[in-house]
């Protein structure tokens, strides 16, 4: 469980965007920042501020990862051949909690982390309770039999606000999802614009 779980909408308010596309987000009612000075007119943001915001938004989207976790994933993305920004998105989407969220087994990415932590998920038949576990192409993720009738699972499957992306093959009757391939930025159904290129610029300079 993260320190952000009980206050996840603070991230939305801070960013001024509904980053998960949730109908209950306070940004749907108030699109300004939190606190008594939130309504002040915003000045032009510096390049550093823009890059930092892009990093905080991406980091927050995946359950507000710690800086240490996020920096480690970025380091891996940098070492792999190809575009670092695209590699970063691919690695983040291969996290088990992200896959559980994308497959619509739970309603939020925070719930996905808790769901995995509590041992409700198997990968290729083996119980895995590490949210950062990295899935590979062809891996089959399944909700354990005793967990398939949990209210949180049954409600999440019915949510109309998001669809399962095509790099996952999900079967909600069996509560399984096969990880077909690592996605690129254009494949991921973010409700808001993510800019991993700015994250790359941020780490290049800092």
TrEMBL record:
GO terms under biological process: ribosomal small subunit biogenesis; translation
Gene3D superfamilies associated with the record: Ribosomal Protein S4 Delta 41, Chain A, domain 1, RNA-binding S4 domain
Residue span, Small ribosomal subunit protein uS4 N-terminal domain: 3-93
Swiss-Prot/TrEMBL keywords: Ribonucleoprotein, Ribosomal protein, RNA-binding, rRNA-binding
Claim: Ribonucleoprotein is one of the keywords in the record: yes
Domain (RNA-binding S4) ranges: 94-158
PROSITE patterns reported in the protein's UniProt record: RIBOSOMAL_S4, S4
Ranges for region Disordered: 16-48
Entry GO terms, CC: small ribosomal subunit
Keyword Cytoplasm among UniProt keywords: no
Family recorded in the similarity comment: Belongs to the universal ribosomal protein uS4 family.
Protein's name in the database: Small ribosomal subunit protein uS4
């Amino acid at each position: 469980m993260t320190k952000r779980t009980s206050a996840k909408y603070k991230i939305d308010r801070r960013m001024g965007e509904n980053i998960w596309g949730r109908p209950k987000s306070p940004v749907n009612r108030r699109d300004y920042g939190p606190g008594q000075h939130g309504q002040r007119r915003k000045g032009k943001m510096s390049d550093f501020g823009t890059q930092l915001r892009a990093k905080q938004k991406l980091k927050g989207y995946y359950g507000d990862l710690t800086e240490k976790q996020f920096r480690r994933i970025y380091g891996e993305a940098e070492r792999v051949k190809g575009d670092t920004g695209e590699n970063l998105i691919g690695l983040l989407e291969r996290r088990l909690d992200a896959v559980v969220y994308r497959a619509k087994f739970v309603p939020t990415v925070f719930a996905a982390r808790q769901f995995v932590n509590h041992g409700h998920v198997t990968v290729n038949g083996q119980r895995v309770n590490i949210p950062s576990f990295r899935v590979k192409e062809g891996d089959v993720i399944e909700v354990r039999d005793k967990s398939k009738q949990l209210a949180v699972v049954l409600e999440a499957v019915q949510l109309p606000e998001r669809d399962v992306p095509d790099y996952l093959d999900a079967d909600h009757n069996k509560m399984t999802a096969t990880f077909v391939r690592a996605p690129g930025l254009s494949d991921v159904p973010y409700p808001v614009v993510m800019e991993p290129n700015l994250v790359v610029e941020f780490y290049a300079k800092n």
